[in-house]
Amino acid sequence: MILSAVVLLLAIGALSQGKAPLQLLHSTPLPELHDGDFDHFTADVAGNRLFSTAEENSKVLVFDLKTNK
Predict the structure, then answer these.
(1) Are 52 and 68 spatial neighbours (Cβ–Cβ below 8 Å)?
(2) Rounded CA gap, 47 and 58, in Å?
(3) Cβ pair 54, 38 in contact under 8 A
(4) Domain, as residue range, for 46
(5) Would you say residue 29 lies in a domain?
(6) Structural domain count, the chain
(7) According to the model, what pLDDT value does residue 55 have?
(8) Does residue 69 lie in a domain region?
(9) What is the pLDDT of residue 44?
């Protein structure tokens, strides 16, 4: 009975991994940023903007999500 339960759990786990939960839609090149980590992200949903800060350049980067710039 325990063996059946283990096999069932493994089968359920394998089936649930069939489809990726996230999909990359597009990427945005960052010519000013060569190496470094991003510290914080926040989104302005109404304005379709993404704000981020990068360790390397000590600036707030603003991305327009409609134009991908």
Answers:
(1) no
(2) 23
(3) yes
(4) 25-69
(5) yes
(6) 1
(7) 76
(8) yes
(9) 93
First CA to last CA distance, the chain: 58
* Structure tokens, 53: 């800060």
Looking at the DSSP assignment, which residues form a beta bridge with residue 38? 54
> In the numeric block, which tokens belong to residue 67?
């134009």
- Say whether 35 sits in a helix, a strand or coil: coil
Confirm if 15 and 23 have CB atoms less than 8 A apart.
no
DSSP assignment of 8-32, as one string? HHHHHHHHHTSS-S---------TT
* pLDDT tens series, the chain, 69 aa: 676 666 666 666 655 556 677 888 877 777 666 666 777 889 999 999 989 887 777 788 888 888 888
b/e 32-54 (16+ beta carbons within 10 angstroms → b)? ebeeeeeeeeeeeeeeeebebeb
What is the spatial distance between Cα 67 and Cα 50, in angstroms, rounded to a whole number?
A: 12
